[in-house]
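Entry for the shared binder. Reason: the reviewer on the internal report wants the predicted structure included alongside the sequence.
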Amino acid sequence: MNKKIKKIVNKKNKSKIICLTAYSKNVASILDKHCDLILVGDSLGSVLYNYKSTKEVTLDTMINHSKSVRLGVKKSLMIVDMPYNTYRTPKEALKNAKLVMKKTKCDGVKLEGGKKIISIVKTLVKNRIPVMGHVGILPQTDKKFFFKGKKQREGKRILYETKLLEKVGVFSIVLECVETKLSKQVTKHIKIPTIGIGSSANCDGQVLVIDDLIGMSDSKLKFVKRYADVSKIIDGAVKKYKSEVKKKQFPKAKHSFKS
């Protein structure tokens, strides 16, 4: 277990883990000052490319953005999402995860699923590839996006699967849109940290999509909180630039070259 991962694991029951997504160096370098963990999420599909789902995100796209993010991350743990259909078998998962680790210099990868991916996680961990789990809503495969754990049977399954994932060696698990009491139960019953998104303050840490947090998206999701309106700042800056160019106020002499 590398030092950064050990630091995250040791935060369990001690201090909240701060996690956000990043897709570029410039944003990552800002987040790195404040985050414990930076996730290059396949959410970039909808955030940057306007895809209808994360299924359209390719391995090459994830690698290219992760290489950029790596340049801005010095302190935080950097984890990369394995995109849809890149870990269908242990052999495929190992080949692609090795490629991601080698090309991006990330600290580990994240996989969605529970019981179905246990043999895959085992293979990666056996080959010294750190794995972060992800249960609850699974954006890569779920057709309907309703919170999980409302029914007792579903809650038992999620609790069982998180224990399974812990047993085969994941160092942390994302709980996406898991019912409040269930997220508390899961967090209590496993020894590794839980990172929540729409899963209440009961988790060991929280993650949000950075564009949602800074107001660069029009997300109406219940679990999103907007902390700034960067789109308004950009709009104001561009208006001012446009005005100065039209009035010949920009560029001035100090922005120009003379022989």
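Summary line for the report: The beta strands are 17-21, 37-40, 77-81, 108-110, 131-136, 172-176, 194-197, 205-208.
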